Amino acid sequence: MSATVIGPAHIRKSNFIEKLVGSKLFWVLACTLLFAYPISKSVTRMLPAELALYNTLPDFRFTDENGKSFGTNELKGKVYIANFMFTSCQTYCPKLLKQIQTVQHRMRGVIDRAAIVSFTVDPDTDTSTVLFAKARELNANPVVWRFLTATPKDVKNLLVDGFKVPIGEKQTANNIMDVAHSNKLVLVDQDGVIRGYYEADTKGINQLMIDTGLLINRKKKS
Question: What value, to the nearest 5°, has the Cα angle with vertex 50 and ends 165 and 54?
């Protein structure tokens, strides 16, 4: 009986792609390129520019909506957003305060490092009791949003000399009492330095929130 001769099996040659994928050098280069791009982006990424430095506020001590003394010492170390209003305002203030309610909501995660301070421009009318009622009406969180009053002289001095915003005299026209004042929102840093002025519209508030976050995070890192 003759033996069956079995010839050598056909050996398929690896194509270029298979050789490339099977090469250690390929994977070294692939991993290098894969991680090099995000690393280089993070290294070369430009950080936002520092916010401008405006006026440093003088120390002040006003009275809050609870009838307690409140001012520079209580705000030290916090970023805060200042605004100017009066409770009997029938023109722009209601819209402004509505916007600040939005700001309060967006600040809910940083209430230990940030605050909102509403300064009345009509202190003769806006006593602590009146401000307390307004705060409750606005659902203001007393941990983050405070309402301050003082003597007319102290209010005017702080706004004009400190915040560098105008304030007019109380006037009545068409049976509507008004006090001309700034509708800007003012950003103050942890050291009492003004870092920006913002319109109380969507664009202005979005930028205000970004800048508030920058101040909080940079101070935290340092």
Answer: 20
